[in-house]
Amino acid sequence: MTQRSAKLTLAVLVLVCTLPVAASYFAYYVWQPQGQVNYGELIPPAPLPDAVLPGVSGQPPFEREALDGRWTLVYAGSGACGADCERALYAARQSRLAQGKEMTRVERLWLVTDDVDPPAALLGRYEGLRVARAGSPWLVRFPGATQGVHMFLVDPLGNVMMRFPVPTDIKRVIKDLERLLKYSGLGRG
Fold it and tell me: What does the UniProt keyword field contain (predicted)?
């Protein structure tokens, strides 16, 4: 073996031994993979206040305790309900229906942020949708709610914990809900 080939062998041996250490250092301290599988954005949990909200369009007053034990998709926006609002209400309904036998663990709530009453025809299309008029003590718990650009998810303990963009990708909301219902015992009767 020549001196040149001995140096080459030594260099390869050093490289083979140090490469895994260097790669692990890089992977741990430098490269931060995006291991996120959820579509919705996780937000710091904010408990909903116990205030009773006035009902809208003939619905009875709404108490927060009505949501206890259920995952709740919440949309907050004007009672006039434009195109984005209708898409959000549709997404909430379809996301709930897609859960099959687990759909009883999911509730829907529309928080009306102004003095406009929603059209009766619209409410007729979304049977089972709870509607209440919300003031600032409630709306402050929903970041960005007054702009009507998000749909929110409230856990069975009454904490706002996730938000989805509006308009939303219904299939991805369904997937997030499926995952939550599968891995969480909360809301099981």
Answer: Membrane, Transmembrane
**Total of domains in the chain:** 2
Residues whose CB is less than 8 angstroms from the CB of residue 98 and which lie 6 or more positions away in sequence, other chains included: 174, 177, 178
Domain that residue 77 falls in: 41-183
Cα of first residue to Cα of last residue in the chain, in angstroms, is 76
Question: 109 with 72: CB under 8 angstroms?
Answer: yes
* Tens place of pLDDT per residue across the chain (189 aa): 688 888 888 888 888 888 888 777 777 777 766 667 888 999 999 999 988 999 898 889 999 899 899 999 999 999 999 999 999 999 999 999 999 999 999 999 999 999 999 999 999 999 999 999 998 888 888 887 767 678 999 999 999 999 999 888 999 999 999 999 999 877 676
The verdict on 107 and 127 lying in the same domain is yes
